[in-house]
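Practice problem: predict the structure.
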Amino acid sequence: MKRILVLFLALILISFSLAASDHDLKQRLVSLPGIQSVELLTSKHFDSKYLLRIVQPLDHAHPELGTFTQRVFVSHVGYDRPTVLVTEGYGANYAMSANYRDEISKLFNTNIVFVEHRYFLESTPDPLNWDYLTAEQSAYDLHHVTTLMKSLYKDKWISTGISKGGQTTLLYRSYFPDDVDISVPYVAPLCRAAEDGRHEGFIDHIGSAKDRKKIRAYQLSILKRRAIFMPLFEAYCKKANLTFRASLDEIFDYCVLEYPFAFWQWGMPVESVPSTTDNDSRLFGHLMKLSDPSYFALNQPTASFFVQAARELGYYGYDIEPFKSYLKITSTSDYLNRLMIPAGVTLEFRPALYNKISAYLESNDPKMIFIYGEDDPWTAAGVTYLKDKKNIMVAIEPGGSHTARISTLPKKIQKKVLARITQWLAE
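Answer:
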């Protein structure tokens, strides 16, 4: 009985301690300037987790032009622990989950400051003015958040992000080299044009010749049976309530052209590609599974991304030569402006961001680790070319896709990555 009583008292003390810790963190967060609200969230991995809404200027150089609120999540393990800054490139809904924890935070038991990107989901200004959706403004958003949070978390800082979030990690480091100690961008492209030009040739060399032949044969079989598949395609789009700026025939072409990029990006097994003799239902269903037309539809939540891609982040193009005889389109040039960005907006690509980041990486040696998948088409524009740098490290998962992570690397490379981060955190 005495033992049970001791355990009971211990539990009460632990609960009291956690409650006091929660209260202390909340008070510190509330006291920060420009915090509109602080909301307690549940977490299975952290002592405390809060959703903050932080007031940000639309234009950091001209704050008088207006503001918007940005969603930021703070997950706390200790004021004396390192902090991971997640530079999300899109919306942050998944960070609401009680199960959420990014890979680096899990590996090194760190706090997390997770920033939803401007112009996505609940961090979208109202009214919507696309002029302020730039890499520079997003970098200043992150700088402001980091500056605020460093008053709480004074240990080492690691910025990280995946895909477009990795691009954001990269551009943030080039604008504010000293804001964080370490950067780990995952599968981050550095594109040099709206249609970069490197991806098409890259795709032509992924896998074996036999694999590529099977994929191309599948694409051709879809195009050759257009008369059979177009009614199914039209019904599919109607059911999903999709609208486009081009005809359904053209969108059908784009879905077929997009297929190999999507296939290799997500690391699909070649065995999953239907045979050209398979039934129509399987052939069509497989295309819709990997290359859904919603990607090209209007009023999608990805519209903000396409604005950034067309303006300065860059993107990829398509090789139509092998399929010309069966396509309704004669060119895919400038397809972002023609199909993907919001109506009434036309953008000309600005190479200044690519030049800035490239120059920064060439002239400096920040503590950065780039993670890539060998077969991911985005790796065509990856930062894989830097040599003879003491700090910058590139880790590539053999046969890997866009899902490449530290945990998916071969053990030998994984150990090198972890040892490098451990060393940097101890310095």
